[in-house]
Amino acid sequence: MTLQLVDAANLYFRAFYALPESITAPDGRPVNAIRGFLDMSAALIERRRPSRWVACLDLSWRPDFRVELVPSYKAHRASPDGSEVIPAALLPQIPLLLKVLAALGLPTAGADGFEADDVMATLAARDTDEVEVVSGDRDMLAVATDRVRVLYTGKGLAKMEVMGPAEVQAKYGIAAAHYADFAVLRGDPSDGLPGVAGVGEKTAAALVARFGSIEDILAAADSGPDGFPAGAGAKIRAAREYLSRAPGAVRVRTDVPLPVLADELPAEPRDAGSLDRLVGELGIGASVARVQAAITAARGVG
């Protein structure tokens, strides 16, 4: 069996920007994100044939514990009141999409104080089946193991990359388990992560490949120059305060309190009446049918 974990926000934001707002319900409301999310989910289920499926939610898109450690974390993506910037045409589609998923019988999971990345990492870590993590966030590469594969969608579903430990090693020159350490050193503007001044991707990869974790890199920098690229030791020591805090913000959590989920692909809608009403209200019949057909194929029925 295979468990497929989907970063819901990543998928519905991608759908919203990929499809025009002229895709509307019969009453004129935009449903481009809803239809796109359902169509992409159907494509993933059809192509990968998982047995189980969960949409993972950002109930806290910028958790306090991460901001306390790295104040710049996602700060450039926050509105003046600190909330996430969500386009006005997308915002009302999100609760409607969740209603559609619930009616279909496709579960969602989230926890206050945590991002979808943490939810996916926790579900992957506590499972025993093969797991596929669908994400456009490179930080999730850290969860790749012989049992867990990351379906990286940073370039879209058409160019989706299946990333296991060997693929991460080949692409970045580091062990997947140390991807967060690499990101801390190199920095990541998309997350407001400054990195270490003067340490680029090549040097970051060399340090992580040789020493491993940020904690081990700091210890090695204190011990002497052996194994460090020229001048890197001084840069690492100068960034000690940042390096002592950032790993706790960048590393995904695997201790999110989550209930046991009924996550097997459903043989039939959980609430057929509600699903019919939503299909009629939103005009999403074709997209819902695609999801149902993909589920039927994945379950090996027909």
TrEMBL record:
It comes from the Bacteria. Keywords: DNA-binding, Exonuclease, Hydrolase, Nuclease. InterPro entries: 5-3_exonucl_a-hlix_arch_N, 5-3_exonuclease, 5-3_exonuclease_C_sf, DNA_polI_H3TH, FEN, HhH2, PIN-like_dom_sf. Residues 1-266 form the 5'-3' exonuclease domain. This is 5'-3' exonuclease. The lineage of its organism: Bacteria, Bacillati, Actinomycetota, Actinomycetes, Jatrophihabitantales. The keyword Kinase does not apply. Pfam families: 5_3_exonuc, 5_3_exonuc_N. Gene3D superfamilies: 5' to 3' exonuclease, C-terminal subdomain, 5'-nuclease. GO terms for molecular function: exonuclease activity. 5'-3' exonuclease acting preferentially on double-stranded DNA. SUPFAM superfamilies: 5' to 3' exonuclease, C-terminal subdomain (SSF47807), PIN domain-like (SSF88723).
